[in-house]
Sequence to fold (806 residues):
Amino acid sequence: MSFQPITQIKTAITVDFGVIILRYVIFVIDYIYTCYCLYGVKLYKQKDRCALPQPMEGPSKQQESLAFMTNIKKVSELAGVSTATVSRTLKNPELVTENTREKVMKAVQLAGYRPNWLATSVKTGKSNSIVVLVPNLVNPFFMRIIEGIEQAAQEKGYSVLLGDTQGKANRENEYASMVLTNRADGLIQLDHSFPFSANDAALAEKVPMVSVCERIEGERRYPFIELDNYAAGRALTHHLISYGHSRFGIIAGQRTSQIHHDRLAGIKSVLNEEGIDFSEDMLVGGSYRIETGIEGVQELLKRDTPPTAIFCFNDDIAIGALYELKRQGLRVPEDVSLTGFDNVKVSAYMDPPLTTVDQPAYEMGRRAVDVLIQLINRQPLSRTREILPFQLLERGSTGPAKA
Amino acid sequence: MSFQPITQIKTAITVDFGVIILRYVIFVIDYIYTCYCLYGVKLYKQKDRCALPQPMEGPSKQQESLAFMTNIKKVSELAGVSTATVSRTLKNPELVTENTREKVMKAVQLAGYRPNWLATSVKTGKSNSIVVLVPNLVNPFFMRIIEGIEQAAQEKGYSVLLGDTQGKANRENEYASMVLTNRADGLIQLDHSFPFSANDAALAEKVPMVSVCERIEGERRYPFIELDNYAAGRALTHHLISYGHSRFGIIAGQRTSQIHHDRLAGIKSVLNEEGIDFSEDMLVGGSYRIETGIEGVQELLKRDTPPTAIFCFNDDIAIGALYELKRQGLRVPEDVSLTGFDNVKVSAYMDPPLTTVDQPAYEMGRRAVDVLIQLINRQPLSRTREILPFQLLERGSTGPAKA
DNA sequence: GTTCCAAATGTAATCGATTACAGTTTTACG
DNA sequence: CGTAAAACTGTAATCGATTACATTTGGAAC
Fold:
């Protein structure tokens, strides 16, 4: 440390102190103004306020122009070489002398150079992005898949564009068209619809696309990765029948989807084998929401012979159903058994914990990316469909049928 | 329809039929092979199999080259105009004659032309993308924010790059650097850490960045949007004290974050006013997970005087705590009152429903995008921080303290 | 039929990279 | 030391757009 006379330090401290006070005053004024805008005057009582955060320097700095964008040309001049050499140093260092490499790297460091990704992409014709179409972001099951997608994509140098479609066709169209405009190299569809607009359908022919969990209706050109929903439907039914149930209810999600049909077919096939009649009366619901579970139970309990066991086609529905059954004074599983689907995290912590079907969601997401990248690179696929095994988790929400 | 002699139709049908049969056979072989790979031989019983999906044409078509990429030059040749005119027709149609416009549009249609987004972006220097850093995708609270972000971004012509950081610094660094390489124009941080690596810190100075829910620790340059956590802490405490509680426990999430400090300060301030001592013993936990709630309850119940009311710093923790309290034979709220935070969907359907603090998550996401886009466009901000109001939802998990 | 001006269109530079090809230096070896 | 081959570096074309500037066209006014 360098020597400083005492007086100088004192001055410095005084000045600093002044600045701090000044900033604080400015901050307090701004803060009060903020509160005023948000709450009106009433809430200003000091004790209801948050611990005051540090004063801010404000956005002034951010008003300046984006001066930090250095390009390859500046670096090349700084290093005294051509742009080609700079590019090579960064992409194929083995083509460049140790000596030059050092010079260039020093210049890169000095200039704070980061290659413009847009320029690289336009030259190579690859965006290294994939777009994922999700019908519902808040469903933790979908998010688990996307976690897998994200992880796998990142490992392979791809980034993920999020397309929250809310099940709406026009939003799907918009996101899907990103692949047609080079904004993304490929597409993962978590819903069951064909995401391209009629206008783009011809172009869509050659687009790398994979669907996960669902199959795209009427489309046989795209690979898919899904659970063995038919077998899962059978397993659940066997499980309930082994407990002596014979009066069933089903609260379905999206009834137009492939997985709906598969699960239903699985259930029906076992009922058939066991000599239990299936009737359309047993089937209610139409979306994968908690409210569907509530309404479904209400409807099913109105039947002449209400069910003693209810299949819910996802855990959210089951959560709603459980809530409503309890509200109506019925006990689970003593009065009614209940099964979910997906094994979302909370399902294990409900009261009672839900019997459900575990899907390897994370793994499905990862596989989808693998397959998609193969499609993007025009590599031959070893398989165009993958049907993954499930696991039936028997927990507290199912039990023996009432005598 | 054109006339066709009967015999010809018959032949066509026969051929078609042959093709279908052939495809079906190929499909079945492939299907069996798939099953073999996935399950082994045992599970082949026909009745355990899914309803057979339609035969697929396989990936052969997708092996072809990406021939559909038409560029502006081809369109210009097709229309017999210059590339400039094509560009103008699409971006500034008012600069072009009706006549030319028609010609060009026809050519665009014919060629199936979609402008290359990468090229446009490199020219204009704007990627029209923003990257969102999320510590945890599966948390529905975060996803609600992202829903808002996504929606607002889409409306303004931006797309959202998903950065699942899992709270890891190196992943944050990687995603944050997307803004430095023109891959994204701005950054929304949902966690409380400064996402840039030390290396990039100098460049980060001028990057458009906003944080939501959390403030970035030690950083005063970036705007933030958050809940009035201090006031929320106070409100929850008042609520519990009004029920006569005086022995409290707190199960916290990330203890290093700003919101943690704010909430805790709010709780402490009320305890102080009411003459209740705060001790570090009351505070357990350290992450926003269900397991934290379980472990937290176990720990708190070991105390000499276990709490009669427990603050959980998010709903997941509360769900875990509720589960564990019940498992230990305690009733909620008769024996122990419990509060959550965030108001995730399921919290209302727990047994009992959770008393919690509602955050306007969707709206916060939307606001974040508004602010970020202002930063990106170098527009002056009217306010560099926004503190949004909360709502205390009193539900079944809180009640009078045991006498 | 000129003249003039505005509108429409074309030419060519540009964005920031990559890379084929050409030119230069270094190395290896007789 | 000379020569060929190998290794390195530079020049300039290229990716697919946008846009400043130059040129052409069209129509109105006289």
Notes: The CA atoms of residues 154 and 250 of chain B lie 39 Å apart. The two ends of chain B are 88 Å apart (CA to CA). Residues 1-9, 33-66 of chain B have pLDDT under 50 and may be disordered. Chain B touches chain A through 109 residues (CB under 8 Å).
